[in-house]
Amino acid sequence: MASSNTYRLSCSVPGHEMDVRGLAATWFPEGAFVSVSRDRTARVWLPDSSSNGFTEMHCMNGHTNFVSCVCIVAPSETYPRGLIATGGNDNNVCVFSLDRPDPLYVLKGHKNTGHEDCVRGLAVVSDVEFFSCSNDASIRRWMVSGECVQVYYSHTNYIYSLAVFPNGQDFVSTGEDRTLRIWKKGDCVQTIRLPAQSVWCCCVLPNGDIVAGASDGIIRVFTESEERVASAQDLQAFEDELSKATIDPKTGDLGDIKMEDLPGREHLNEPGNRDGQTRLIKEGGHVEAYQWSMSESRWIKIGDVVGGSSQQPSKKIMYEGKEYDFVFTIDVNEGGPSMKLPYNVTDDPWLTAHNFLQKNDLSPMFLDQVANFIIENTKGHTLGSAPSVGSDPFTGMSKALFPLWSGRYIPGTGSTVSAPAGVADPFTGGSAYSSSGVRQTITNIYFPKTDGVMFEQANATQILGKLKELNGGAPHVHQLTEEALNSLEKLLLSISDLKTKGQPTVEQISLLWKTCHWPEDIVFPVLDILRLAVRHPEVNRQMCSDTEGVSLCNLLLCLMGPEGRPANQMLALRTMCNLFAAAQGQELLLKQREAVLSRASDLRSVCNKNIHVALATLVLNYAGHLHGQPSELEAKAQCLSVASTALEVVQDKEAVFRLLVALGTMVSGDDSAKGLARSLGISSQITKYCSVSDPAKVGDCCRLVLGELQ
């Protein structure tokens, strides 16, 4: 067994449709965090006591390209729950609150105000200010109100990251110009060059030391403290490593270089006039670069310059106004539009590949493939040599066909999907499918699905822990006594596993109903207990009969309102799904069908995977109950309409699958329902899912539904 002080996996949190680019812990709610992604969204994740994981609480949209960074602004009097700032490849910074999905402010990129290129990093200054940095080589200081109050320039290439010192004013930055820069009182007071092309990230430790991570795979720590300064031997080793680096003038601040115009070593006898000042000298037929250190009052060699002007005629290729050793033509898919990949032999192939994928919005999973292609096709080439591998005799450009996927559906590229040979529960995944090769027919194990699908998983210990925690801070009028908490604990234990045949008491059920009226910001653990409780026949009977049932339905509909909290919306939907576990709950939901499905359908626009799965499950449970009842044509029409409109926006594959099963269940053996589905254009709407092979059940189910509608 692992020791108690080692880190082990706690949970996995699926949710984003594309890769996650940034994370930050939030101030409120406690224990939550924010993620940002290439899918252009930012999402807030709340600890879920029922699953020992996290539930999506809030989804924010505002960027028109992928989101690359995030920071959390502390609560203030104006924003008591704090703010979330995100930066994206649309050159914008969006500022969000937890009260709405759209931004409070969009800090757009235009001259002298916003960034003019991708925003790469954010750092909080205070509860009213934050920094941003960008590929436009600028750092900007913003008020949370959206006003840009200062712009800082010193870097000569992309800036990747920022970190603020404990004093809340001074900061550090890193970038593609190989430097870590230290800013005090608004000025760059020190420039530290590293023997790596890209300095990707940095942070400031509580003791004021600076940590930087670079493309050479090394993390370096810099300090002002004499006690923590490296040994003389280590300092010399670092300086020696730096002096052996090669510098491409196109990526730094060295400018155009003509060797014949450069001075010799005597130029280093003159002191510099600012820290980080760069000076080039001619030494034995090549160019060396030196940097002035104010603290040591001397010039430090930072590398040999390569790729500058020479006496030899240029054999480079011109592309977009710049000269390159190679310009590859990349065909993402045969017959599709080509993309150009320019490259110089002094460039880092991995950085070039990274920038190419970002520019063309291609998946980063192809980073190795593109970088290795560059390495393979530039082997043996030296500076200034003419390209020879596969080059076009007229343009000098090299061409390659890459079988890359851009994430878009391309007709005809889907592989043949084999049907499952064994029978498994496609909702729980119980007993894995076995495969005996490609089959021509698909066995329909999916619909009609007439038994309800329930949300039954729970972690009683965590639910109770969160309930007691929130009870301690609840308004006095809502606080539960120790006796009441014990009563709810007994109820939860009796209904967590229905096989134990525990019998909830009238008093416990009454207490649960009373506690369901807690304030919306703390009621979610109570709703988790309610979700589990309504599966029990006795709780279902008492809470769903007559006026009690109408009151329960109204409470859940209120929690599902458009201004509701996502966690409450999700739990209310799950509770309604579980009401189908017994006859009284089924009867209640059939009576309230029009209001329930109408309100549930409105939640399709909420960018939340768990809500979408719960919505799809509710539609599926209605479909299962209506199956075989030809007289319920109006109810089926509403279910078909809700499923159709949900499929327009739902992205999660499990939610899509459950909606497809609901469609199949409604039209199976019912010609009238089939006619309604055809009139809604469902066949053309779902055809795109036929090519889905991961998971295979989506593609299989889609083809079966289309077969019913033919």
Q: Looking at the structure, what is the overall shape?
A: elongated
C-alpha end-to-end distance: 57 Å
Largest sheet, order of strands side by side?
Answer: 1-2-3-4
Low-confidence stretches: 308-314, 381-423, 430-440
- Our Rg estimate from Cα atoms comes to 31 Å
Biggest sheet architecture: 4 strands, antiparallel
Number of strands: 28
Mean pLDDT metric = 80
Number of alpha- plus pi-helical segments: 18
Label the structural class: alpha+beta
What's the helical proportion of residues?
25-40%
Taken as a percent bin, the fraction of beta residues is 15-25%
Can you walk through the features of this model?
The chain is of the alpha+beta class and 710 residues long. It is 30% helix and 22% strand. It contains 18 helices and 28 strands. Strands 1-2-3-4 form a four-stranded antiparallel beta sheet, with no helix packed on it. A hairpin with a 2-residue loop joins strand 24 and strand 25 (322-324). Helix 14 (633-647) runs antiparallel to helix 15 (653-667) and helix 14 (633-647) packs parallel to helix 16. The protein is elongated. The chain starts with 19 loop residues before the first strand and ends with a helix.
